[in-house]
Design a protein that fits this description.
Blueprint (H helix, E strand, L loop, with lengths): L3 E6 L5 H13 L3 E6 L6 H10 L5 E4 L1
Parallel strand pairs: 1-2, 1-3
């Protein structure tokens, strides 16, 4: 089984920058999910993503 990757961005405007990373993961057959969570504006959400990552099956966080 290939790893599942969480791609975390600080803001919605980062989505275009991370698009290539997501495309590359998908090309390699690696499952990924994107999240928007600013460590400065929404620290609780960012921490929550990290804390729940393993139980949600994520092996890598970018």
């Amino acid at each position: 089984m290939k790893p599942k990757v969480a791609v975390v961005m600080g803001s919605e405007s980062d989505r275009e920058v991370m698009k290539k990373a997501v495309e590359q993961l998908e090309a390699l057959g690696i499952s990924c999910e994107t999240f928007v969570a600013s460590a400065h504006r929404t620290p609780e959400r960012a921490v929550g993503i990290a804390q729940e990552a393993e139980e949600r099956g994520f092996k890598v966080i970018i």
